[in-house]
Amino acid sequence: LKAIPHTCVQRTIRMIKIIDNGGFSKRLFFVGASGFLASSYSLFATNVIKPALFYTYPPCGRLSSNAGMVIDELTLIGSFLGMLLAGHFADLWGRKKLYGFELALLIIATLGMVQASEGFRAQHPDGTHESTMDIYSWLAWWRFALGVGIGAEACGLSLSVLPLTYTNHLTQSPLVAIITAEWVATKSRGRMLASVFAMQPVARLLAFGVGLAALEIVSAHFGMPPDELDNGDFKTKLVADQVWRWVTGIAIIPAAFAVGLRFTIPETPRYYADILKDVAMAIRKAAKLYTETTPPQGNTEAEQLAANDNNNNDDDSRSQISADSTAAVQGWYTGAWHYLQHPPARNRLLRVSTLMALVDIGWYSLSMDSPSALSSSWNDPLSSSSFSSTTTATTTTNPYTLADASCPQFLSWRTDPSASTSIYRELQSNATAYMLIVSIGAILGNIALVLLIDRFHRRKLLALTFSMLALLFAVSGTTVLATNRAPGPALIATDVVFGIMHFFFSFGPKTLILVVAAEIFPTVYRGTFYGIAAGMGKVGAIIIRPIIGRTGRLPMALGIRLVVVAPVMLLGAWLAWGLPEVQRIAVKAEEGRRNEEEGGTTGDEMSDLEGVERASLREGVFGRGGDDGRREKQPRVFGSGGRKTGWWTRFWRELETMTLEEVAPNPA
């Protein structure tokens, strides 16, 4: 450390330079992506197993006669608490202390779900049954715990939801987003965050793929034909029970792998520099990680600092127990209160929180992670005509097999209660419809975002995709209302529009809002504000979930929801346009070349000057591109000879990502 300047500002500049020289860290990507994949899989697996669970254990009279609704709400409440607590504690205690704990909670909750049971079940002489335990009470508790864990892990694993019916927007991971944003090089930040969040659709596809594989393997093991109905021998019940437990339990494998990887990532340097005020330790941590992850001579400054620090055995605890660190934590609440007294800062938090809520409202209204919603657009895959002539159903007195008029939820495992379908066909058709309508569009949307995120301003792209979704919501809703879901070309066109909507959700709001939320808050408050914003999204979900649950099977309910949500998406576009800039037109290289030709400042010297300018921004409460509510004026782009470039060059240019300190300077 003797080789570098000793002022706080200069050391911070060096820390940022070390991180920026590290480039796109594959190790950081795998650490963030593995945890996001594990938590997303745990949520999305629920939609795979819901029919099997309800088929094996009819939710008749359970949990106030609406087991699915109660479990959904408890899961959302758990995720809301997890987001708030994890985000805030990450600011007070450090990001790394919680990084892994939430996945450990996920593993415990998953084990609890897999082992949930009815206990001892006895049959009375009058034919009624009584159990010593209620499986749905256990599931409700474990889903709440799982919601807390996933809310902490993905206070944005963006955001997605659910429990037993909707789970796509629960993952808005604060910890994943914060650690990734603070560790990654500035130039790679957009691509890195988009790549990590792309694990959401991958996890959904994996969940349904595992579901199909488990269904095939378990059915073959028990010798159950695909079209076999329950004939009283409990074979179909045994298959369904094993399928949902296997699909749920598989989530433990990627979660355990992710926990192991997270031990390889130290505390973020920005936490040391900006919260604990220990810039020397921040430099050590940055030098240590990027010396290990970059090739020889790839980050010479990091190698030099690491070599100078070989005999330094400081660990995380030494800095955190210092008197200065304790004072910094104690003054956090006062500082946060004063910071939010500034209207631009308060507006930034309110704007992002509202956008999170609007995204959840739009996604829940689409409800395309729900089997029942998929069946409303899928071309009658569950009709009795899909069964072979050898299908037989035996009428028995088994209380598990007969539908009871006093229990309207007895057939709730069927997306279409009026159709005669087997549990095998139900699970198979749900997975097939999901992969064709939802998965393809979502994955393509995330791929497009990874490739293009540095070509467009984030706020403009977010506003554009919100506007496109408003148009698609209106078109699809009108089509559904006009055709009444009748089979034919109109229904096929509706399916295509649904797929396009999933593309734009992944290309824009559902992923991009998570990226922006990780960038636009000061480091000292980033965890808390991100958690609040993501938590507000869950508040919107908690409100709209009962509405959709009670109206989901009513005629035209889906079409009406789609039309009503269209103006909500337009509101999102308006709010997104007012977000602060996190990118600017890259003109440094061209200006540096011209300056060198004129004998002026070189490109490297300009970089150093910009570093000093960034440092000066950090010394004030607000700065250019920060919380003053003004966006930096974008310069014109000129080609060789000073000529103005053509429209295509201006349109397809790669934008320069601003440092976190420029986007949101820390208060003095």
Automatic annotation (TrEMBL):
Report what the protein is called.
Major facilitator superfamily domain-containing protein
Q: Give the region (Disordered) as residue ranges.
A: 591-610, 620-644
Compositionally biased spans, kind Basic and acidic residues: 625-635
Which membrane topology describes this protein?
Multi-pass membrane protein
Q: Where in the cell is it found?
A: Membrane
Domain Major facilitator superfamily (MFS) profile, which positions? 28-584
Query: Could you name the domain of life of the organism this protein comes from?
Result: Eukaryota
Q: What is one Pfam family matched by this protein?
A: Sugar_tr
The UniProt keyword set, sorted, is: Membrane, Transmembrane, Transmembrane helix
Q: Which residues cross the membrane?
A: 28-49, 69-86, 98-120, 140-162, 202-223, 243-265, 349-366, 433-454, 461-484, 496-517, 529-548, 560-579
Q: Which GO MF terms are attached to this record?
A: transmembrane transporter activity
For this protein, the record's InterPro entries field holds: MFS_dom, MFS_sugar_transport-like, MFS_trans_sf
Lineage start: Eukaryota, Fungi, Dikarya, Ascomycota, Pezizomycotina
Q: Cellular component per GO?
A: membrane
